[in-house]
Amino acid sequence: MKDNVPYKIYLTEDEMPKAWYNIKADMKEQHDPFLHPGTGKPCVREDMLPIFCGELVDQELNDTDRFIPIPEDIRSFYRMYRPSPVVRAYCLEQKLGTPAKIYYKFEGSNTSGSHKLNSAAAQCYYAKKQGLKGVSTETGAGQWGTALAMACAYFGMELKVYMVKISAEQKPARRAVMETYGASVTPSPSDTTDAGRKILAAHPGTGGSLGCAISEAIEFAVKNEGYRYVLGSVLDHVVLHQSVIGLEAKTALDKYGVYPDVIIGCAGGGSNLGGLMSAYMADKLTGKADPQFIAVEPASCPSLTRGRYAYDFGDTAGVTPFMRMYTIGSGYIPAPNHAGGLRYHGMSPILTKLYHDGYISARAVGQSKVFEAATLFARCEGTLPAPESSHAIHAAIEEAMKCKQTGETKTILFGLSGTGYFDMTAYQQYNSGSMTDYIPTDAELEENFKTLPKIPGVQ
Ligand SMILES: *Cc1c(COP(=O)(O)O)cnc(C)c1O
Known about the structure:
Layout: E1 8-9, E2 19-21, H1 45-48, H2 54-61, E3 67-69, H3 72-79, E4 86-88, H4 90-96, E5 101-106, H5 117-129, E6 134-139, H6 143-155, E7 158-164, H7 165-170, H8 172-180, E8 184-188, H9 194-202, H10 210-223, E9 227-229, H11 236-255, E10 262-266, H12 271-285, E11 292-298, H13 303-306, E12 308-313, E13 322-327, H14 349-356, E14 361-365, H15 367-381, H16 387-406, E15 411-416, H17 424-431, H18 442-449
Parallel strand pairs: 5-15, 6-7, 6-9, 7-8, 10-11, 10-15, 11-14
Antiparallel strand pairs: 1-4, 2-3, 4-5, 12-13
Helix pairs in contact: 3-5, 4-15, 5-6, 6-8, 9-10, 11-12, 15-16
């Protein structure tokens, strides 16, 4: 039923956040420290400086400042595509016949098509400020690489992208976009790095994985003067930058006196959900409100729902620090028929900790169900959603249908993290009925758990 809330709630540029919110400052307990892969001792700033740029390391290690000012140059960049709207899904509500009120925060209205630009801009800015020449990274579906290519072009930085090979083959248009913005793109695994050659020797013909592309990108950064590596998800500073999503959403909804009961996001590495929930998790952590949070992941890559809470590598070659996270093992390569994104083996340490401590719940969905929800959403709300985001749509519909049964009028907020324009091969598979679900067996997961690192005195 239509009420006093408009279809779209926009903020003015002045209402955009002036500082990022650092959720760690409000967490009762911090996540376990990163451990040095050589010594097994907690990582200190100096350990990370050869890989990451200095200010990002400082943000990574900061668990005391609640707010970190957004530099004016980054705000200027944000103004080109932000604030992003909060949309009331009236048409979806009507279609479902639910008494629930459904809202989504749409992060896909920039050319890169996703929320990733929020952190890309910040990371490029700090790399430039440090006087670096360029950055290197991995990309899976291509959203992160595209976002970074846009940010690098704007700030005048070089960019080297290792793109998961199967994605590069399935999405040639993504590669063309990155190259248009000036990036150099290499499908991974490649024979241009030691890590890539090793993986190719062990798994000839592999379509690659995010973990192995990360290994190649880090090797490139470490071996090339004036380069650092940047990561589009998982790390604390990425969750920090993404807090703009939640801060904007809360400012917008507050205007209409709307407070969500349920907040839902898809979770690959955890950054869009971490960002969307930030301002509301602040209320939960400080006892002001008690909303429910749901992370939705693919059944084919189920780190929160079926993974181990353990120290693992962030990549396949084992060059990143050990991070304690929910993981299905860094050697895990999702089945080749997996088209729905979110293929990372681990999870943000911040989300890991909040999940472990009971602040967040999680569920896993098979990709056919995800595309069913995506198609329903596209047909009534108009926007073509990214497969990743459609995991959140699926859960939002599930929650709304529960309300239909119970008659509850819950308010649901979910993150529509991106658009699906570059995922038409996956949609084609779904439309033609050739999409299949692959769910790993317990035995397969057990095999992967055996690859978790043994760290003396820890695990
Ligand atoms: C990368 C991506 C995700 C997954 O990453 P998170 O860090 O979990 O947010 C989700 N949605 C879209 C559109 C993406 O591009």
